[in-house]
């Protein structure tokens, strides 16, 4: 699911990560952790603020790039208006 969207490195070893041919961000480990955590806890029981604060120990603004990417890839949708 994530690999075909270039959100997960094709080569994941620290020694060979430069050999990766995909377009994953340089700060990919932290970004990938945020993606996986957001996807894991986005089940309607916790808000994005709760996920940021409780699960990732970061501010909600730190998750804006993650949420934007997940929405663009149709992996996450806003619950506004529901």
Verbal overview:
This protein is mainly α. It has one domain. The protein has three helices and no strands.
Summarize the structure.
The chain is mainly α and 82 residues long. Helices cover 38% and strands 0% of the residues.
Present the secondary structure layout.
Elements: H1 28-41, H2 48-55, H3 64-72
SSE pattern:
HHH
Low-confidence parts: none
Rough shape?
A: globular
Number of strands: 0
The tally of helices reads 3
Calculate Rg over CA atoms: 14 Å
Task: Supply database-style keywords.
mainly alpha, 38% helix, 82 residues
């Amino acid at each position: 699911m994530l690999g075909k969207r270039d959100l997960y490195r094709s080569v994941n070893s620290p020694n060979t990560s430069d050999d990766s041919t995909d377009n994953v961000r340089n700060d990919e480990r932290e970004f990938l952790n945020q993606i996986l955590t957001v996807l894991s806890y986005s089940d309607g029981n916790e808000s994005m603020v709760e996920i940021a604060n409780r699960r990732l120990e970061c501010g909600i603004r730190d998750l804006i790039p993650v949420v934007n990417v997940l929405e663009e890839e149709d992996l996450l949708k806003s619950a506004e208006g529901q």
